[in-house]
Design goal:
about 70% helix, about 475 residues, 20 helices, mainly alpha, globular
């Protein structure tokens, strides 16, 4: 314990360095120093300045850590983390342009600031929390900029809200990388093999690129799911609260309630439900806040079902299977009704497939009766099914939603072992490596990749592994984070 105070002091120093890297760029931008130019425009310069400040912070942290860790394995782990963090930084800086999706968030936040509903004037399809947070960020940043005697005009303040959103995306990317690595390690992968798999998954990742390009919130959902899975065993309440927060951003994390209920993780279920409701009520003006959630619940049944070719949902695939021949025949009036009926039948069949898998896994678990290890893999199998079928049954499955398939790929690598790597590779290639294109039926490659992964990881094909070999200790920097779990 002698090193603990020093460790936490170092953590505080790193936190201060990170806050400086995020806070200095707007100040440097407005100082208009002759040392600083803005080749791509004044508004964009704050993101390039963030790239500069964050690079300095990463280099300082890397220098300190590499000096303290002499072992080759530790240095490989740290070097990989640093290089991947630079890759994320490059992506965030390059993709920091407001998308149509982000404009919807901003209009929803502006509506809340004006006392209006965010669900009347925009294509905002999310629970209120995101728009409420952005509205609160606008108020706080406006006051802060004014107090610092910086530009606090509405246009610049909204730009700073966007800047804060992008900095958060960078933090979420780094957190997702770390959590995926921890998930791989929890499944029994070694340090270097787990690191290699997760690094490849983040580097070759079209859904992740699209999430950044469209300023999407899928990374919030991914981190909530990963945190929920990793915290469940030792911190079930924290796991439930993480998932509850994720549900307020996107509904996908709610899929974890199914495996948790099946395996009687009632504390986590209660924490998820309580956290979700608590966030809805935790507001000074809670009556108005509940009114926003009532508007969302009234609006949600009207959510559109995407039918474009890049929407990799089952409904979109069926719709276009009928649209194209009917369009060639010159009459598409009957297509929506036919496609809706057929997609309902297919969705029912998919639910039946999910139910069959759950029953088979329960039977397999009873046959094995192999103690805690088998129980863990029973839970993991149910969890991966919930995530996979959540994407499969969604009425809208845009390309960026498939970042949620990353845990499924990591699990499938371990579950199928070396003989099944080509099966996992095929599914991962279809989901993550191929670019997005609108060519029927080839544009549904992400849907096909998901089906491949689910098909090959059937309960009958997956065997609980033998006891893990003794693990090498993690570097001190990672142990410090693990102590917080």
């Amino acid at each position: 314990m002698a090193g603990s105070p020093r460790r936490y002091l170092k953590g505080l120093a790193y936190l201060g360095l990170g806050l400086a890297a995020a806070g200095l760029p707007p100040v440097l931008q407005q100082l208009r120093l002759p040392l600083i130019s803005n080749s791509y425009g004044y508004e964009y310069s704050v993101f390039e300045l963030f790239g500069f400040c964050a690079s300095l912070a990463i280099v300082i942290i890397a220098w300190v850590e590499l000096r303290q860790h002499r072992a080759f394995r530790d240095r490989v782990l740290l070097a990989a983390g640093v290089l991947v963090s630079f890759h994320f930084l490059l992506l965030v800086v390059e993709y920091s342009l407001k998308s149509w999706d982000y404009d919807c968030y901003e209009k929803a936040a502006a509506a809340i600031l004006q006392g209006e509903t965010p669900y009347q004037y925009t294509a905002y399809l999310y629970p209120p929390l995101l728009a409420q947070t952005m509205a609160s960020a606008y108020r706080g940043l406006h006051l802060l900029l004014a107090a610092l005697h910086l530009d606090s005009s509405p246009g610049y303040t909204w730009q700073m809200v966007f800047y804060s959103f992008q900095v958060t995306q960078f933090l979420l990317l780094n957190l997702a990388y770390y959590l995926c690595y921890r998930f791989a390690r929890s499944l029994g992968l070694g340090q270097l093999s787990g690191l290699g798999l997760v690094t490849a998954l983040f580097i070759f990742n079209t859904p992740l690129l699209r999430a950044l390009r469209h300023n999407q919130t899928s990374l919030f959902a991914l981190d909530a799911v990963l945190a929920g899975m990793l915290l469940l065993a030792r911190r079930p309440v924290a796991a439930g609260l993480a998932v509850g927060l994720g549900i307020h951003i996107k509904l996908y994390p709610a899929a974890l309630l199914l495996p948790w209920a099946l395996t009687r993780r009632w504390r986590a279920v209660a924490a998820t439900v309580g956290g979700t409701l608590g966030l809805a009520l935790a507001h000074l003006h809670w009556r108005e806040n509940l009114a926003l959630y009532a508007q969302y619940l009234a609006f949600s049944p009207q959510f559109p079902r995407g039918t474009t070719l890049r929407n990799n949902s089952v409904h979109s695939f069926i719709y276009n299977c009928f649209r194209i021949p009917y369009q060639l025949a010159g009459n598409t009036a009957a297509v929506p009704a036919i496609a809706s009926f057929e997609s309902t039948l297919v969705s029912a069949a998919l639910l039946g497939w999910l139910a069959l898998r759950l029953v088979q896994r329960e039977q397999r678990y009873r046959e094995l009766a192999a103690g805690a290890r088998a129980a863990d893999w029973r839970l993991l199998g149910h969890t991966m099914d919930a995530l996979g079928f959540g994407l499969l049954l969604s009425p809208m499955a845009w390309e960026h939603h498939f970042v949620l398939a990353m845990p499924l790929v990591i699990w499938a690598v371990v579950a199928l072992g070396a003989p099944g790597w080509w099966k996992v590779g095929l599914g991962a290639f279809l989901i993550f490596v191929l670019p997005i294109f609108d060519v029927f039926p080839f544009s549904y490659h992400q849907l096909a990749g998901l089906v491949v992964l689910l098909y090959y990881t059937s309960p009958r094909a997956v065997q609980p592994p033998a006891a893990q070999e003794p693990e090498q200790p993690e570097p001190e920097a990672i142990q410090a984070v693990l102590a917080l779990e």
